């Protein structure tokens, strides 16, 4: 087993993704071994979300980023299956529309941040505007360079106004991406996800890694931490994410709201 690997990089660390093993599975050496903890932490998360939702005091923004086939959809499906769907909104950020492009890049994001009691899950996010936009020169460097500070300001503003922020980068290897693309090509239940464009993007693997390293270095703060989730093993990925979200909600110490008046004596009419 490899040495203990941090989930959140040190806040002053210059992240080099080669230092992070995408095959890392922490204290577990197999899926079977992790099964008990994984189930327990998923159930704990689902229970905690009930009080989080009922209390309507805190809001939670969860951002998922990864290269193509990194497992964003799968992680969201597995971690949030079982939570009260009324309390979770998933927003997937695709190629911007003409109208979105006619605004600043945060314009389309802000309306989807969570209200109190809600969990907003971002499948991709404003980080695309320093990732795909950078790798493909969609705007000049002098424009995207400024966005790290802008994003940090935006997230700090959300935090200072009561939003808890968790960011997950799902870290897979290039070999694992190849296997996943092959399985999308060959498995009839996955072929709908096969996108020839992903092969084009794969050519930019190194540029994406570099762009991600900048994001993980420049936008990592205690109030909005990046988690580098070892994601070659889906079961470990889901375990880590569920545990992290569960621990975060647990720390909020949510309580069911007390009735505003004495309701014990109220008679319910027939
Ligand atoms: P998927 O998540 O697989 O459905 O793909 C969504 C696509 O939208 C990806 O290729 C992203 O790179 C792209 N995308 C998301 N946000 C942006 C953005 N701000 N600018 C350009 N492309 C984007
Ligand atoms: Mg895709």
List the helices and strands and how they pair.
Layout: H1 31-55, E1 59-66, H2 72-80, E2 88-92, H3 98-101, E3 119-123, H4 132-135, H5 141-144, H6 147-160, E4 163-171, H7 174-186, H8 196-202, H9 205-218, E5 226-230, H10 234-251
The structure holds adenosine monophosphate and magnesium ion.
Adenosine monophosphate binds next to helix 4.
CATH class: Alpha Beta
Tell me the strand order in the biggest sheet.
Answer: 2-3-1-4-5
Domain module count:
1
Largest sheet: 5 strands, parallel
Fourth-tier CATH superfamily name: P-loop containing nucleotide triphosphate hydrolases
Bound molecules: adenosine monophosphate, magnesium ion
The shape, in one word, is globular
Coarse structural class: alpha/beta
Strand content of the residues, in percent?
5-15%
What is the helix content? 40-55%
Distance N terminus to C terminus? 65 Å
Order of helices and strands: HEHEHEHHHEHHHEH
Low-confidence stretches: none
Q: How many distinct helices?
A: 10
Mean pLDDT: 96
Report the CATH topology name.
Answer: Rossmann fold
Radius of gyration: 20 Å
For the record, the CATH architecture stands as: 3-Layer(aba) Sandwich
Question: What's the total number of strands?
Answer: 5
